[in-house]
Amino acid sequence: MWVEKYRPKKIEEMIGNEDCRIAAIAWLKKWRPGAKALLLMGPPGTGKTTLATLLGKKFGMHLVDLNASDTRTKDKLDKKIGEAIRTVNLFGERSLIFLDEVDGLLGRSDYGGVEFIKEAVKLTQNPIIMAANNQDADEIKKLGSVCVALVFKPPPPREVEVYLRRIARLEKVEVRDQDITTFVTSAGGDLRHAINSLQSGNTIASGGYKDKSTAIAQAFEAFFDSTDSAAALAALRSVSLSPMDKVRELNRCLIRSSLPPKKMSEALGVLSRADMLMGKIMKNQEWRLLRYLDNMLAHELLPVIRGQNLRYATDDLPFTTLVRIWNDSKKVKELSLKYALRAHTSGSSARSQDIPFVFALCAVKSFREGLEKTLDLDETYDKFLQKEASR
Amino acid sequence: MKLLLGAWFTLPRLGTAAFSSLMKAGVQYDRALGFKVDAATDIASAVKTLSSALGEDVELNLRCLVCGKEACPGCSYLAICDRTKVSPICLCAEHSSGPDAFEVYEKTFAETLVS
Q: Which has the closest alpha carbon to B108: A171, A29, A15?
């Protein structure tokens, strides 16, 4: 894939955010134990992770990276990177600690992740770089006191065009000016999307500027209509969604389709494996494996759905159904909290472990009445519990 | 008013409220050089303040990395390029058109790093 092939190998090869790149290099040059950490903030795909990786390479530092949204508690963070933070190697060489997606630490204050980072910045023997997508989050602002913050923005379209022209030249591909303009315009600042469009000679983007959602819909339609794996692969690569969202959208289309049960089972099986692959990638930070996701979907899913007239589903569930789901969810949440209070457990544990059994037991009238009395539930719960028990 | 991102510019007296609002938006101020809007500035907010304080539209211009001049005049992407939201350095028509435009960009950036 050209995205992989032309991934910047040094900081100079990146485009956009020039000030941030210069500031980051200056920060690392001057860094001494006790100095502030570096916080890179900005939307996905603007080069935060790439910059951290290339900084490590430029300064000959071993990169210790961790996706903070996967490891949130203080203990787990300490177990994974505590040693790396506090020590240097035998030769006195420093490592570069990179905590990606620190906005994932925001979930619950009692996890202690934010406090761990604040403490780590004070004690560390190695420079720490953090990256966050959501710069407005309160907890990110809390980190402000221990960080030098740099805001990343998408590169201007003209720089994207220059980058695409360079790739086209190196690949010896003739591209018309109007097509380059279309690729740049439809990418909306997402360089990865622009490169993928260039590589696939994107038929989707070639109709001029299109709304991003329309482009996504058309890309999925192109995937469903593909006659061979190569076309399916090109269509999937032109979908400007994160890999996880891509799998979710395919799942949404599948469950709304009228595929025969056997086909449906096979198709969902492929998506399940794709989901497991994503899980492994996220858990082990094996981002190189991402290149196999589209291949997997194109080679395994396409043969199952080919000729089944599958369409991209733009509709959502009917509003009345959604309201029912919201109301039921609200009731389950309230019930779980009341139950958790009595059973000395957490709301989420009650919801995931106990409540399913409680619902089953509610088929017995005496149990249901006892539960309503003990938890002080109002009369609306009786009907709700009966309904849940009958499922 | 034309505003070149990353370059110093002067303003007439705007009053305490407008000045304070510009400082909150992250506009840099130097008594000798004037004001500067750069990557760290909340550009949308700074433009809004300047526009209402001066009573005129503020036209943002990205700066060319290679020559330091305005990069926006003649750009074919003006209609879709939200200059308050993209990174503030770009390439002008002259320095984005040659076959080796990227290599020139890369070289200039490397020189900036050294300096």
A: A15
Which of B89, B99, B110 comes nearest A19 by C-beta?
B89
Task: State the nearest Cα–Cα gap between B65 and chain A, in angstroms.
Answer: 9
- Contact (CB, 8 A) for A373 and A389: no
Chain segment A52-94, per-residue pLDDT in tens: 999 998 888 888 887 766 666 677 777 777 777 777 777 777 8
SS3 B95: helix
pLDDT tens digit sequence for A253-277:
888 888 899 999 999 999 999 999 8
Q: Give the mutation candidate from B45, B87, B112 for the A interface (greatest A CB count, under 10 A).
A: B87
Angle at A207 between CA B82 and CA A178, to 5 degrees: 70
Closest to A193 measured CA to CA, from A247, A242, A249: A242
Q: Do A25 and B38 touch (CB under 8 A)?
A: no
Q: How many CB atoms lie within 10 A of CB A145?
A: 9
Among the partner residues A162, A181, A189, nearest to B86 by beta-carbon distance: A189
Chain B partners of A17 at a C-beta cutoff of 8 Å?
A: 39, 87
Query: Complex ipTM, two decimals?
Result: 0.89
Burial A190-212 (b: 16+ CB within 10 A, else e): bbbbbbbbbbbebebbeeeebee
Interface of B with A (CB under 8 A): 6, 38-40, 62, 65, 71, 75-77, 80-81, 83, 85-91, 96, 99, 101-103, 105-106, 109-110, 112-113
Where in chain A does DSSP place strands (E)?
37-41, 62-67, 95-100, 128-132, 147-151
Alpha-carbon distance A154 to A130, whole Å?
18
Q: Residue B29: what are its φ and ψ, rounded to 5°?
A: -135, 135
